[in-house]
Amino acid sequence: MTHKQPVLDLSPPVSDEIRKTTCYMCACRCGINVHMKTNADGDMRVAYIEGNRDHPINKGVLCAKGSAGIMQHNAPARLRKPLKRVGERGSGEFEEIEWDEALEIATDWLAPLRADAPEKLAFFTGRDQSQSFTSFWAQNFGTPNYAAHGGFCSVNMAAAGIYTMGGAFWEFGQPDWDHTKLFMLFGVAEDHDSNPIKMGIGKIKARGARVIGVNPIRTGYNAVADDWVGITPGTDGLFILSMIHCLMKAGRMDLDYLARFTDAPVLVNGDPASPEFGLFLRDADGKQQVICRKTGTLTAFDKPGVRPDLSATHVAEGITHRPVFHQMAEKYLSDDYAPEAVAERCGIPATRIRAIAAEIARVAFDEAFELDQEWTDFRGDVHKTMTGRPVSFHAMRGISAHANGFQTCRALHTLQIILGTVEVPGGFRFKPPYPKPATAHPKPHCGVTPDQPLDGPHLGFVQGPEDLALKADGSPVRIDKAFTWENPMSAHGLMHMVISNAHSGDPYKIDTLFMYMANMSWNSSMNTGGVMRMLTDKNDSGDYVIPRIIYSDAYSSEMVAFADLILPDTTYLERHDCISLLDRPICEADAAADAIRWPVVEPDRDVRGFQSVLCDLGARLGLPGFVDDTGAQKYADYADYITSHERRPGIGPLAGFRGEDGNQAGRGAPNPDQLKRYIENGGFFTHHIPDAALYYKPWNTAYQDWAVETGIYDTPQPYLFSLYIEPLRRFQLAAEGHGDRQPPDHLRDRIKHTMSPLPIWYETDQDGNEGFNITALTQRPMAMYHSWGSQNAWLRQIHGHNPLYLPTKLMRKNGLQDGDWARVTSPHGEIKVPVLEMAALNENTVWTWNAIGKRKGAWALDDAAPEATKGFLLNHLIHELLPPKGDGLRWSNSDPITGQAAWFDLKVRIEKTAPLIQSEPVTPNQNSPAPAAPKNLAWKSR
């Protein structure tokens, strides 16, 4: 008798309905399927989250963070109602109030400021992914004091990329995963762009491509690299320039690419006595001049048929003008950049530097290939094929968060360009709406008029001293001192300086600090203890030095305790969001794309999406752009804004399903059913680039025409890559005494030294750090994103606390073993923490996971939670100002060009200490408006 196998349902349904939206657990913005289950009470609840296989970003892949979004949505730490402070600031003592009262309070505080002194409002946001909207609100309020998190995260990378080539890594572009054969990463932590990079690395490794990881720490992507380069922190730029030296000396450059598509042949004034020394030679129309090698004549760079000459010089009015390429050769062929001269500082043997440079050159040139695709460039030249150079790079915060980060990022972009690997098959490719030259972006605006909007966008790209945000007396217009002589090209602002400057009244006092998703009293702040004191400090009259603080967050974070008014936000599954081409879209290199989030569930608390709150608050304040001609509220909520708003005719927050019938892409009238169409399409929209336009985007007429048609440009914008950034030279000229707008004397030498128009490397300013010679770094784990994951019931099991990792050499030197405790000191502070040994680590570097440590009472965590006992922050050791130099000044701990926070220049010393019950310093408990989580946290949809 045969055995009868029982019938088993191996795939029982996990849900009654699937709702497709966009993840918010990191910046990847993956597509997700949210499975909904109907409970006994008839309510639909989230049962399961998986990746959306049809989504262009993740194609169904989803990481631990994305899956754990259920726990983020159900976190006990969620705020439940608007709150008004009733105790001392910092005590965490609040009373619940209704929304009308909360908005009346905010209006009563803000309306007088707008009427009399809009600059008294400082409005700064964290990782909110809606910055085109929040900046629009701030601009209509009229305050010059707006920016987001980029100033303490990655502005060096973004600004260096845009000034050099019109875009950078990550959200600006990506490797050509289908064709690259050698992939090199610099300073990339595993939380950045994690799913696309993991998928890309898997794809290239499957076909035998090599991966080289350059990072002091071997975790994540570097752990799966074929070759790991454990570089000395802060020396990446020197290593890169040494490779450029090797390539130039060997003649391993794409000279045709340099001549056609970059400013390498552009002529530069070479007379040191001239007030235009170092500036480009231009014609009457302002176009850069080159010598055509066919005719030997002087001509504009974009004249049809011109073949720019990399070597020819030109004499005009007795002044010799030399091409940029001459200056590059003089600088980088110097023995100062030879591998033997830089090896010790970089911690990389000279032979290895030469070997890596040789491997890059071999793959770029000896393994070059052709794609059979005709295209036409901006000079009208027809190219029968597209040349592929299969070397690609990726870099992020690790090389950006140093005081030499801007020039380091510039050096990396220059390395790509001389190899001819940008916007070619196998290399780095831009994602729409990039590439855009720096001149296509707005300049920063700072014209403040009471009761009127600001005179233009807050942030932008300066082209010279005339664009700085300075008052007539030379003092800063902005509270963070962005776009001043201290940080001239601070394209993202200086969020890390806002509280310090507001507290000191330098450059002036403010009245209200308004922040969203910016945990400035804890892990998002340098000088954590000092910032908490600044937020609670009172003057001689007993009033708070910073009079009012309004804060919005979805969770009971550390920052909540320091606010006077709390506007509780929703979770990402309860609100509308717009991932827009005007902001931070989800584009890939072969398509323009954007996405939405929408309320797949309704809040079970009295909370509102922050963007909708701003629509209401903007109307109450009568802000132009938020009221109609009758003075009535223009946008009912953020969803209405997303659908109805036009930044310019036919261009709105979303590019998809435009026009009355929803059949237009990029340009078109508002469509009242646009959000519905997005939801039906899985929450996203994709508009593919034609095959002939997929590469050479800055110079390809097919791409330029497509970009105009799509609304990315209003007119074609072809341009040359800037190996030589002329605006930097304009600032140097001012420091040398030329021009009407002059820097203060104490900054002249720094400007002349650091603002080189060709990439340079310099030691970061560590005066006052004598005796502190170990570099201390933080890195964010793949299972976390900022501090959001630290209160997630699933993710906490992966990273419940964080040790300090020491290399073998430092463990032995200090007599330490795994589980011992160490005292770690800097010129600013001291911590005591547990340590673990890690062999795959630069021998003079220590590191830990970022943002694991929590303050007791925050995030609804138990006082005995490991995050609050053994978890810790390196932030206690960092300061927003450098140690005193003896010159009577306190210099910002920032890049001198962009103002980006130099988190990774932290120097410490280490010694063994007695074991402790919990890490130090111990911050007093804060009261939390969110009740502590139950001892046994369980949740399941039935």
From TrEMBL:
Query: What PROSITE patterns does this protein map onto?
Result: 4FE4S_MOW_BIS_MGD (PS51669)
Please tell me where this protein is predominantly located. Answer: other
Q: What SUPFAM superfamilies does the record tag this protein with?
A: ADC-like, Formate dehydrogenase/DMSO reductase, domains 1-3
Tell me its cofactors: [4Fe-4S] cluster
Coiled-coil region: none
Q: Which UniProt keywords apply?
A: 4Fe-4S, Iron, Iron-sulfur, Metal-binding, Oxidoreductase
Bias category Polar residues: which stretches?
920-929
Query: Where do the segments described as Disordered lie?
Result: 653-672, 917-942
Subcellular location(s) of the protein: Cell envelope
Pfam families from the UniProt entry? Molybdop_Fe4S4, Molybdopterin, Molydop_binding
- All copies of domain 4Fe-4S Mo/W bis-MGD-type, residue ranges: 16-77
Q: Which domain of life is it from?
A: Bacteria
Transferase listed as a keyword: no
Q: Which CDD domains match?
A: MopB_CT_2
- Membrane as a keyword of this entry, yes or no, is no
* UniProt GO MF annotations: 4 iron, 4 sulfur cluster binding; metal ion binding; molybdopterin cofactor binding; oxidoreductase activity
- Which Gene Ontology cellular component terms are annotated? cell envelope
Give the family per the record: Belongs to the prokaryotic molybdopterin-containing oxidoreductase family.
Q: In its UniProt entry, what is this protein called?
A: Anaerobic selenocysteine-containing dehydrogenase
- What is the native source organism of this protein? Sulfitobacter marinus
